[in-house]
Design brief:
This protein is an alpha/beta fold.
C-alpha cells in the first residue's frame, strides 16, 4: 500500500534566507530522499507581510498547526516601531511553541575555538520574556527626562517546558544541564525558571545538573566548562544571545539548525518547525556563496520528527542528510565562511549526491537506517 504524502509547511523568507531555503529544499525532492512529500508554501517576505498586515503569518501558523511540521527561511525584521515587525513571535505563539533548541556541534575539518569539541545545546523559551513585551515611553520626546518602559512576563508552564526538555535532552546526549538565569538578582521573575529547573532535577536524579548564573555561563563557555556535552536552559533573550555565541564557537553560525517545538501536556512533540539560526545576510544576496548547512540540516531535522510520527523511511532519510552534510565538510567541500571554495549550489549538489548514494547502499544492504 502506498505511503500517504507527508505535508511540510514551508515559510518563505527574504533575501539570502530565501535563496538558502530554495537550495535546501532540493534535498527533499522525492527522487532524492525517496519519500512522498508535499510542500505547502506561504510567502512570508516583508513585502507580503506588509501587504496583508501580517495575516499571511497567521495563516502559515494555522497551516503548520495542522501539518505538525514546518521549515522556515530567514525573514527581515523592519526597524520601524509602526511596521509589521518580526513574524517569529506570531508564528511561535500561533503554534503554541514553548521551546527552541539549537545545538552547536563539531564540524568535521573545521577547528573550533576555545577548545570546544563536544556538543552544546541551548534550550530557550520560544515565547514571552523580552520579546512581545509591552513597551511605552513617557516624558518629552527626545528630552533628557524621556523615560522608556518595558513590561515583560514569563509563565510557569513555559519555564516547566524549558526545564523538562533540557533534562530530557541532557539524558539523551549523556551530558549535563549547565547554566541558568540570573536568579540571585531577580528571584521573582528569573527565579521562576530556576525553580522549575530544580524541580526537574529532582525528577531526573540521573542527569548531572550544574546551575550557574547567566553571566558565569558565558564566562564558562569560553574558559573550559564544556568538558562534557552541555545543555543550557535559558530565558528567551538570554537563549537568543547564547545561541549566537555557541554556534560560531564551532566555526559558523550556519553550522547547525534551530528547531521550534510545541508539546502536549506530556511533552510529546505536536509541532516541529526547523530553520537556520542566522538572518537574511543581505550582503551575500545573489552571490551563491552563503553556507546552506543550517537550512539543509533543518530539512533533516524535520524528517526526524516525521519519523517520530511513524512515517516509513523518514528516519533513514534524516540520518542520510545529517551524515552527508558533515561528510561533505570533512572531505573539504565547504563554503567560504568555513575556509572553502564551494558555492552554495555546489555544496548542496554534493550533499544530494551523498544522500542518494547512502540511501541506495543502505537499501542494497537491506537495512532501514
Amino acid at each position: 500500500m502506498a505511503t500517504a504524502p507527508l505535508t511540510i509547511t514551508i515559510l518563505e523568507g527574504d533575501e539570502t534566507g530565501q535563496e538558502l531555503l530554495e537550495q535546501a529544499l532540493r534535498v527533499l525532492e522525492p527522487d532524492v530522499v525517496g519519500l512522498p512529500i508535499v510542500l505547502e508554501r506561504f510567502d512570508l517576505s516583508l513585502e507580503r507581510r506588509r501587504e496583508t498586515g501580517n495575516q499571511i503569518v497567521h495563516d502559515a501558523a494555522a497551516a503548520m498547526r495542522a501539518s505538525g511540521l514546518g521549515i522556515k527561511a530567514a525573514t527581515i525584521t523592519p526597524e520601524g516601531k509602526d511596521d509589521v515587525g518580526s513574524p517569529n513571535r506570531i508564528v511561535r505563539e500561533g503554534v503554541d511553541g514553548k521551546v527552541i533548541i539549537r545545538t552547536g556541534r563539531r564540524i568535521p575539518g573545521v577547528t573550533p575555538i576555545a577548545g570546544v569539541y563536544l556538543p552544546i545545546s541551548v534550550v530557550r523559551m520560544a515565547v514571552d520574556d523580552a520579546y512581545g513585551a509591552k513597551q511605552w515611553r513617557e516624558g518629552p520626546e527626545g528630552g533628557a527626562d524621556e523615560i522608556a518602559y518595558r513590561t515583560e512576563k514569563i509563565t510557569r508552564g513555559t519555564c516547566a517546558a524549558v526545564a523538562e526538555y533540557a533534562f530530557r535532552t541532557a539524558k539523551k546526549m549523556g551530558g549535563k544541564v549547565y547554566g541558568g538565569p540570573k536568579w540571585t538578582v531577580s528571584p521573582v521573575y528569573e527565579g521562576m525558571l530556576k525553580e522549575e529547573l530544580d524541580a526537574a532535577a529532582q525528577r531526573h536524579p540521573d542527569v548531572w545538573y550544574q546551575p550557574v548564573l547567566i553571566d558565569a555561563t558565558y564566562a564558562g563557555l569560553v574558559s573550559g566548562a564544556a568538558d562534557s556535552p552541555l545543555v543550557i536552559p535559558a530565558l528567551n533573550r538570554d537563549g537568543d544571545c547564547l545561541s549566537d555565541l555557541v554556534m560560531p564557537m564551532f566555526g559558523s553560525i550556519a553550522g547547525a539548525e534551530s528547531v521550534l517545538l510545541a508539546f502536549d501536556e506530556d511533552f510529546t512533540t505536536q509541532v516541529a518547525m526547523a530553520e537556520a539560526p542566522h538572518g537574511t545576510a543581505p550582503a551575500l544576496l545573489g552571490k551563491d556563496i552563503a553556507n546552506p548547512m543550517a537550512m539543509i540540516l533543518a530539512c533533516g531535522a524535520v524528517l526526524n520528527y516525521a519519523a517520530d510520527r511513524g512515517l516509513p523511511g523518514a528516519e533513514r532519510a534524516s540520518r542520510a542528510i545529517y551524515e552527508s552534510v558533515l561528510e561533505a565538510t570533512a572531505t573539504g567541500v565547504r563554503t567560504p565562511d568555513l575556509g572553502g571554495h564551494s558555492s552554495t549550489s555546489e555544496f548542496t549538489t554534493d550533499v544530494i549526491g551523498r544522500v542518494r548514494t547512502k540511501l541506495d547502499v543502505w537499501s542494497s544492504l537491506g537495512t532501514t537506517v
